[in-house]
Amino acid sequence: MRISVSNINVNRERLWGTLMDMGKIGALPNGGCNRAALSGDDKRGRDQFIAWCREAGCDIAFDAVGNVYARRPGRDAQRPAVATGSHLDTQPHGGKFDGIYGVLAGLEVIRALNDAKVETQAPIDVICWTNEEGVRFAPPLAGSLAFAGLVDVDTVHQSRTTDGSTVAEDLRDCGFLGDEKPGSRALDCFIEAHIEQGPILEARAKQIGVVTHIVGIRWSIVKLTGRDSHAGTTPMDKRRDALLGAAQMITALNQIARGEDEFARLTVGKMHISPNSGATIPGEATFVCDLRHPDPQVLDSLETRMHAAMKQIAAEQGLQIAIERSINIAPLKFARELIDTVRATANELHYSNIDMLSGAGHDAMNVARVVPTAMIFVPCKDGLSHNEAESATPEDLAAGAHTLLHALLSRAR
Ligand SMILES: [Zn+2]
């Protein structure tokens, strides 16, 4: 695929300055931000975004879960909008870029089109999704889930925030409660720009990640039952030690994941042991096994082998084992035509790029269920995210926005 690109470009300093201005809202002492969804600071951040969009000539609309749509009108109001965006809410010790970049890169695209006095056929929407991070209320990714019809509006409205209010009350108080039904707006496509939140682009010295998939996630909750017994009097060969079994299992699971391919991820990050006492051999251990891969068949195969390995270790250690499948999110493949558009645009603009996966969830994965969707990643320093020290260079951020601009233009002309 070839994309013809004009010489319209984004303004690197303006994009950077806008990001730094947004970073002053809910600012933390070490350079980060705390803007939990629908908190006072999230309202201030979104109000600032809306003011900037109005100055840039956009029409603003809200839907019933508070998603914000800033529209730059096209010549043909009947055409579905070409859309971009992300989220402005943050983790409690969040950075200045995760989510924010995708929203403000969209704003920079609109400003750049205004500077160049370019009219498009289709309207362009910059969307700020509600509550991606899920810090103050559930579910995380609420705005995009509702847009895709994966959660209903009432469920979001009735959700209680950590401050005791309901989301419906907060939406009303913030002035973000619209009457548009989420998902009712016709979109031609959705392209989300985001910092990578991982180390790959930096390590490989590439400016653009063309995201092809979001990995699937499966959780197994593993419960091991052995026997509580005295640490001093029980000989080593007479024990039924649930924690020892769990330790051997974690090692075996890691070997299976490492032996698969570069995309497999296996994490045991949470465990409960009982009685959790220094002088008693633990009779019970329960842990969460988080498995990720982009290919559903590989996920099946990994899961089968992991479960078999754990059962074998349990038998050897005289433990009972119960494995309960919990979370099961299917891997997501973005729209082929849009992936090609993003890659061809980056090539035409001479930005080094690679195809890559996202190991994290994003609003784009929900939108992708109902609209052709793709993502553009840019490098972030040390792959660090969900951290105040989260950082990216003005050059890389501008490269991502420039790619976004021409990818959107190729659809909107
Ligand atoms: Zn994000």
Explain what the structure shows:
By secondary structure, the chain is α/β, with parallel strands linked by helices. The chain has helices spanning 12-22, 40-55, 100-115, 142-147, 153-158, 167-174, 200-203, 242-258, 296-316, 336-348, 363-367, 394-412; strands at 59-62, 68-72, 81-87, 124-129, 187-195, 208-214, 216-225, 229-230, 265-274, 280-281, 284-293, 320-329, 332-333, 353-358, 373-378. It is 34% helix and 23% strand. The strands form 3 sheets. Strands 1, 2, 3, 4, 5, 6, 13, 14 and 15 form a 9-stranded mixed β-sheet that branches. It has a 4-stranded antiparallel β-sheet with strand order 9-11-7-12, covered by helices on one side. Strand 1 and strand 2 form a beta hairpin. The chain is elongated. The two termini are 17 Å apart. The structure holds zinc ion.
